[in-house]
Fold this protein.
Amino acid sequence: MAVTIKDVARLSGVSISTVSRVINDSKPVSKEVKRKVLEVIEEIGYKPNEIARTLVTKKSYLIGVIVTDLADSYVADMVRGIEEIGKMYNYDILLCSTYGDKEAELKYIQLLNRKQVEGMILISSTIDEEVDKEIDQYDIPFVYLSRYSKSTKYPTVSIDYHFASYEMTKYLISLGHRKIGFVGYLEDEDSTQYEKLNGYIRAMEETGLDPSFIYKTKGLNIHEGYDALDNSVLDHALTALFCSNDKIALGALNYCYDNKINTPEDISVVGFGDIPIASLIRPKLTTIKEPFYDMGAVAIRRIIKDLSKEVSEEKHIKLPYQIQKRDSSKKIELEKYKDKE
Amino acid sequence: MAVTIKDVARLSGVSISTVSRVINDSKPVSKEVKRKVLEVIEEIGYKPNEIARTLVTKKSYLIGVIVTDLADSYVADMVRGIEEIGKMYNYDILLCSTYGDKEAELKYIQLLNRKQVEGMILISSTIDEEVDKEIDQYDIPFVYLSRYSKSTKYPTVSIDYHFASYEMTKYLISLGHRKIGFVGYLEDEDSTQYEKLNGYIRAMEETGLDPSFIYKTKGLNIHEGYDALDNSVLDHALTALFCSNDKIALGALNYCYDNKINTPEDISVVGFGDIPIASLIRPKLTTIKEPFYDMGAVAIRRIIKDLSKEVSEEKHIKLPYQIQKRDSSKKIELEKYKDKE
DNA sequence: TTGAAAGCGCTACCAA
DNA sequence: TTGGTAGCGCTTTCAA
């Protein structure tokens, strides 16, 4: 059995109240008593039991974090942000992975609540009503870090996907590209994928270009980006491909490599996200840098603010992003462009 | 205030003992009473407070996991293994990142203990005595998932780095390579990097080859792999480079790319680890697949076994690995080989 | 099969 | 400045 506050009290000849006071520095304690108590604590290696503490104070210093899959580097990045900032406020992270299973999500929300977490952050693949309903039952701060933007009454942290996408498309156009394809996973209309698509469409239409070169993937992974492409890329003489995320872009890049389409000479390929690998592959991928770490950091800051009863700022926080111009996109050469026209 | 067991007891007209019995299914309770209690629980949405439970049962169902950095994909993989298996036994993960700071490591070991974790897994960049001493103070199961192999009295889970490295070198030799360089981070003699180096040396010497083409990096990251190389690669007419980890191999690959040395035509480059990116880049990297997920899984299994007082198997568990032969390594062409001789 | 009560380790109140 | 004590929400004896 570990040593408890009682042992300390007994050994230093004071009451447990006094011991409690010195370890919490909560009320004045005379110098000598304090010294003695500290001495005993040091000697017998007493460490307060946080569980007992939590039971009475109601402060667990625990934040529940439910993620889809840590293997996604952007998820890991978000968790890093959450954890690092949380630590600054003495909060610890209780981690659960759902692997996209909605039932698991529901289950973990309950579980974490039973474990008395003070707040929860959900990095989810979906936002759905059942989850909302479940969260409703608990009275703790909650933030969505979702790739879906369907309106929810709970706070979210994200970037302006539509505008980012619009800007990226404009950038490609400014490079001289006219026939620009969009590659994305267009399954769920509430997904950010659709926001990205719409940004693309708006930019194309504004410039009087044809926004109909759309390649639908069957998922968000590399091989699905690869599989979504076919000969029509060449047939349509596309000179640029805007992929809705970096993994899909990687797939596109590999498709080009395998089909002897040179990047960026023959075709520019750009992504979205800026996961670590984007700047490691050759050619380095032009993409939109999403501030994943910051999203995590902001999410937990928001929770900590809520916890301290500070008035919360806006509900849906949008963070800045950046277009990372790298080697996979290139100004179109005029002659070549004319050839293809 | 959340509803407690008292509310349930009052509303269903029984004692809290009885309620406790039905929620835990610990002692016989008459059918009607049980039904009634369950009904009330459902109605008012009672959820047991795990903190209170832990205080009396001493079971927190919490495993502390201290990692270096989640951004390293292998770390994330290990954590996945830990979490998934842990969940099967109802264990949750309390996550802390040290970013290589030993002080933080020590601090978190204490913190997690105060939070009453039942076991701890340390994914560390080092194994050192201070940490060992700190762990000594607590009486909970502990497993090292370290990249260092210095002997420690605590259980470890790893692979046989020496032999894996030996085998990989032999594989390169079997491909016809004779001038094989080793690229690694040889700072700390207790590091697994040295085990890998020794595996390389043994294989080379056994075959009567010169094992002195050693490139020392200044760290384990891509750019450090890149920076470790120089013209001597060409001068020595090396035909293969064995890199002590995948990131370093990536750096080597990039170095070759930038210096117009074709991989694998001019030089074979192989790595160690098989992080996700290894099979995504082109050419796909030949490497040794370390079972990161399994290492995590085995580590937590070991802890759970310890917890259930089962007799523990061997202390230092070695897991199988695989050589992944991919596109960055290639049989040497005889004519070319002769040219270079 | 049930209830009363002790107690887990701690904080916080009240009284001295 | 100190000590006594109630009580956090629960499990687990012990007795009925």
